Amino acid sequence: MAVPRLHLSDYLSAGETFHFARSTCVSGSRSPLHAHDFYEMFWINTGRLAHYANGRTATLGAGAVCFIRPDDAHALQAKGGDARITNIAFRRETIDHIGNRYGPALGARAFWASGVLPVQRQLYVAQTRALNIWAHRLDASGRGQLALDAFLLAVLGLLLRDDPLPLGAETGPAWLAESCRALSRPDVLRIGVKGFVAVSGLNPSHVARVCSRHIGKPPSALVAEARMTLAARLLVSTDDPIVEIALEVGHNNLSHFYAQFKAHHGIAPRAYRLQNRYDIVSLKSGR
What we know:
Elements: E1 5-6, E2 18-25, E3 35-36, E4 39-53, E5 56-60, E6 64-68, E7 74-90, H1 92-106, E8 119-122, H2 125-139, H3 145-161, H4 174-182, H5 186-191, H6 193-200, H7 204-214, H8 219-237, H9 242-248, H10 254-265, H11 269-276
Parallel strand pairs: 1-3
Antiparallel strand pairs: 2-7, 4-5, 4-6, 4-7, 6-8
Helix pairs in contact: 1-3, 2-3, 4-6, 8-10, 8-11
């Protein structure tokens, strides 16, 4: 049976270049499976969803953002309570233009991925806050092309800044790059090496050999570096207590976290926060 295809023209008024919606997925209800003649992105503000896409299923929580291509057949179902999402849909030409101009930098990220599943990224709390601020401005913009382009470039810039693959990862098999990218996700970091291996779906010994061959480091070293990178970012971008940041990146022992952070960054966590945080208004050092 053919999958129904939605048409953007059915959702736009005269002069509009995109459709913007905030909606609630009622617990247990499932949207009809559908495809589109447009691109869309959505993210979860609260709750949990099962995302059915191209014959696969993924469970997504608050802060997860998805980049849907026109031919992706997908549906959503709230799990364990209602879920609140934000959705933005726009014409193919918008993404074609951005891809033509920035393609080499974007690679296979976001809308340009070629895998079976659409790209799904888990954002940190600070990133989700930024995304919602940008979305609020977009919603109030009048639905023009300039505002849409500015929003999309900000989102893509966020993905680029937070996608620093280890040197050598892109020379290996595709799963290696994807597993390294998954280390930006707190849920993977909290599990550690087991989480890294689980993303690959392969034997731990094989994963270790491939990591050593292409990156020159074992999975444990990649996980340790990713934890310290995320911890540094959270210290600067949030007001979270240091003990909460340690737990967020997978360290249950605070003393060990302090030791690892100082070994990696050459300075204690609190001192790092003091040196690198600034109040944008007053330009005085933050806490």
